[in-house]
Design goal:
The chain is of the alpha/beta class and about 300 residues long. Helix content is about 40%, strand content about 20%. It has ten helices and twelve strands. It has a seven-stranded parallel beta sheet with strand order 3-2-1-4-5-6-10, sandwiched between helices. It has a three-stranded mixed beta sheet with strand order 7-9-11. A two-stranded parallel ribbon has the order 8-12. Helix 7 runs parallel beside helix 10. The chain is globular, with a radius of gyration of 19 Å.
């Protein structure tokens, strides 16, 4: 079986490559805009530099894959309002370029697409895949549009897909003390020995999932040949932002600073976004390999060595 990972040097992309390479049954091909791969040359892995915004480059590729993990893209909230051209060209036009290239192929790979918690309208109840949507950022709309493009190209041109919505990822297989998003923000405060900053009371809840648990769930579902054209929430653990900040504070002996919401951040805040993960758990019966609080303790111990 041949699998392609677009965005192979990105945070989740590189972890996907790492996880996929554990299977001797897969030949992995990585694609990203950087000239060189995140990985050194290794068996069963071929890397190609490509700009997904350039359809001519895409049209020259051999896209004879069984699975195509499309993890190319950029993330962000407020910054997208000043860099909207970049967000639209990378997150939407790049995907459309790929779909346009694939639609004329006789054998089409199944596309695996990562979406986000930010497309949901916040709720005090766990969110199911079909629950109400709301778009408070350009990035959220990029992702929802991506979901819709995949459905259109399936209906009109027979390209199969799976969509996986991710809430808050954390962790790193290559540098334990580097993470992204919310947890990355907390770690940066620790590394600079400054207080962890929380807007308001920090009561908003999220589903947190280690990046390797994210990859394992995606791979387990994607490699089932009968699984096509569906949407799944990725499973994880539920905590409030304050609860996680307190855990960091205790292990790293650092203070927490509650401040007033900046006006724009408050307007963009969704409230609680906790996933109902029953759909994917029923499919793959997956048990999480990582616990967030244990992970925080582990990196705190590494910091003391």
């Amino acid at each position: 079986m041949k699998a392609a990972v677009f965005g192979a040097n990105g945070y989740i992309g590189r972890h996907l490559v790492y996880s996929l390479l554990k299977s001797n049954e897969l030949e992995i091909f990585g694609f990203d805009i950087q000239e060189s791969s995140f990985f050194d040359e290794i068996k069963n892995y071929t890397y190609t530099s490509i700009d997904i915004r350039n359809q001519e480059q895409l049209s020259q590729l051999d896209l004879d894959f069984d699975l195509l993990f499309y993890f190319s893209g950029i993330t962000g909230t407020g910054i997208a309002f000043t860099e909207y051209d970049k967000f639209i060209s990378v997150n939407e036009i790049g995907l459309l370029n790929l779909l346009e290239t694939l639609k004329s192929h006789d054998l089409k790979p199944k596309i695996i697409f990562p979406s986000t918690r930010l497309i949901y309208k916040g709720s005090s109840n766990p969110l199911k895949e079909e629950d109400e949507k709301e778009f408070k950022t350009i990035y959220a709309l990029n992702k929802f549009n991506g979901e819709q493009y995949l459905k259109m190209y399936h209906d009109y041109f027979g390209i199969d897909f799976l969509i996986f919505r991710i809430c808050v990822p954390y962790g790193n297989a290559f540098n334990a003390q580097v993470s992204y998003g919310t947890i990355g923000f907390f770690l940066k405060s620790i590394q600079t020995k400054s207080a962890i900053t929380l807007y308001g009371d920090g009561s908003q809840k999220r589903t947190f999932t280690h990046v390797l648990d994210i990859c394992s769930q995606i791979i387990a579902a994607s490699t089932q040949s009968e699984q096509t054209n569906k949407v799944y929430n990725i499973g994880g653990e539920t905590f409030s932002l304050k609860e996680i900040a307190v855990t960091f504070s205790e292990f790293f002996d650092i203070s927490i600073n509650h401040i007033e919401w900046p006006e724009l951040a408050l307007k963009m805040e969704s409230g609680d976004t906790v996933f109902d993960e029953s759909k994917i758990r029923k499919l793959i019966k997956y048990q999480l390999q990582y616990n967030l609080k244990d992970w925080i303790e582990e990196i705190a111990n590494l910091d003391k060595v």
